[in-house]
Amino acid sequence: MFRRKHAPDFDSNDAEQREAKINELKAALGPLSARGEKYCSEACLKRYLEARNWNVTKSRKMLEESLKWRAAYRPEDIRWHDVSAEGETGKMYRASFQDREGRTVVVMRPTKQNTSSHEGQIRFLVYTLENAILHLPEAQEKMVWLIDFTGWTMAHASPIKTSRETANILQNHYPERLAIGFLYNPPKVFETFFRVIKVFLDPKTIEKVNFVYQKDAESMKVMYKYFDPEVLPVEFGGKNNVAYNHEEYSESMMKDDIKTANFWADDAKTDHANPPINGTMVPEVTTQPSLLAAKAS
């Protein structure tokens, strides 16, 4: 939860030093499963290093915990039919538009909560994150969140258990994936709830969160800095009348599921043939690098 200091002689702006740290982390991990090998791309290793201020020991521990989590939870195997009921109201979805830098946008609308299932909500969150990462353009590592709190009351607040696990998954298993988040029109009562959940958030994450109010011209300027009003939905102060359509979104997700299944298929067979050692590690498998692999990691 606190900022971590890296060695004073390390310069994160030095490309050679960064590359040395990445190679050191890769070597420290040792042999991985086929899926683990594909997940641990150079971009992935860099994100975990950045999350732990380039401390290899701490980054290795963090990444190994993520590999164990992925081996057990298998986020890449979640399919739309597993979570579609959670998405019926459009409470969370990958948007059809991007920000000014072309980054993937995830829209969240807490007032559209339609279930009380802790596990169902967590699986839906993970599925949406995996799908958003799949659609990140080349050279983009981070996504943008738009969270609409218009009409929110404490009755819409997630249970502390769900909020805690959400924060844990986002920060520990998807590090350095958030570019910026906008909390749109949060009511005063939300401030109390936010003070509670802030204890679960890393200071770096908190710094990326922006409170934006439709009637506050200055805060809307921050929103427009990242979004062209022509593509921004009306519900977020833009001019785009785009609306969530569950049937159309479902069709898109099912097509994406085919791509995801094909991508991980060979690795699933290989991992099945080579049972994991100590939970996650198996004999090293050489995989061919690809753009999709970088995105998936």
UniProtKB/TrEMBL annotation:
SUPFAM superfamilies: CRAL/TRIO domain, CRAL/TRIO N-terminal domain. CDD domains: SEC14. It comes from the Eukaryota. Pfam families: CRAL_TRIO, CRAL_TRIO_N. SMART domains: CRAL_TRIO_N (SM01100), SEC14 (SM00516). Residues 80-244 form the CRAL-TRIO domain. This is CRAL-TRIO domain-containing protein.
